[in-house]
Amino acid sequence: MKTRHVVLNVLSIAFYVFLTTSKLVGQNNDTLNLAKESQHFKFYSTNSDIKVLDSLAITLENNYSGITNHLGIQIDKKIKVKVYPNMQAFHAAINLPDAPDWFVGGTLSTEEIVMVSPLHPGSVHTYASLMQVIVHEFTHIAIYYARGDKGVTGLPRWLNEGYAQYEAGQINARIRKNVELSVLAKSAPTWTQLNTVSDMEFGSMNGYGLSVTIVEFLIVTYGIDKLVLLIKEPANFEIIYGLSEYTLEKQWAQYLKHEKIE
Ligand SMILES: [Zn+2]
């Protein structure tokens, strides 16, 4: 969908701190302060966004145990959530000042979610869709925990993005239909292609929509336990499913077309 996560390396995080600090000097109204704590999260925002933090906290906490139980993890610290007052401030903070309006949320390391305020969602997103974005970004953090020291190295992008969208409820009939039509027209990229294109190409080839239908197909057909095994050890694809990735890709097309899976 129209969201994207970004993992910045240590150097970028340092730069990020420097960047926000320098930008916000003299703009005290925009300073992000610790404004709310819930059971598993700490929220930072400007004064004008404090009123949205209750909704963000309820949304995250309502989804927290489901996601961590699915992945079989415990997170031993509170995750920071930084809510920037508008698109310009958010894009400046992540050092992507020219980013498009669909770029509304991300993760910084395994401890921090950054996002634009749902009160100023920009031209692409809405208040409601940003309530899904925050769950999407938390799911990325939970995936990192589930994979231990491996990070996202070797994790297929369709699996990482598809599972984050699945947990966030970012799938609907329109998305399924678009993907079905592209499969029928044989214009859909292969699962392998989804992993090898650039971030921008991934977005423009409907990579988010394709990915969430792949994950939904795997969960509906084979259960979430196998999907979680796959997230932890993607190289064991054939061992986990007892089928080749090629065969599963064929089954996914049948699933989309509502055909009997063979
Ligand atoms: Zn994502």
| Major sheet characteristics | 5 strands, mixed
Helix share, percent: 40-55%
The sequence of SSEs as H and E is HEEHEHEEHHHHHHHHH
The CATH topology of the largest domain is Glutaredoxin
Unique ligands: zinc ion
Instruction: Kindly report the average pLDDT value.
Output: 88
Low-confidence stretches: 1-29
Distance N to C terminus: 29 Å
Q: What portion of residues belong to β-strands?
A: 5-15%
Structure notes:
The chain is α/β, with parallel strands linked by helices. The chain has 2 domains: 137 residues, Glutaredoxin (3-Layer(aba) Sandwich); 100 residues, no CATH class. 54% of the residues lie in helices and 10% in strands. The protein contains 12 helices and 5 strands. A 5-stranded mixed beta sheet has the order 1-2-3-5-4. A hairpin with a 3-residue loop joins strand 4 and strand 5. The radius of gyration is 19 Å and the shape is globular. The structure holds zinc ion. The site of zinc ion has 7 residues, from helix 4 and helix 5. Zinc ion (ZN) binds next to helix 4 and helix 5.
Features:
262 residues, alpha/beta, 2 domains, single chain, 5 strands, binds zinc ion, disordered N terminus, five-stranded mixed beta sheet, Glutaredoxin
Sequence-ordered SSE layout with sheet pairings:
Blueprint: H1 10-24, E1 33-37, E2 41-45, H2 50-71, E3 79-84, H3 87-93, E4 105-108, E5 112-116, H4 127-146, H5 157-168, H6 173-184, H7 191-196, H8 199-204, H9 207-222, H10 224-232, H11 237-241, H12 245-256
Parallel strand pairs: 2-3, 3-5
Antiparallel strand pairs: 1-2, 4-5
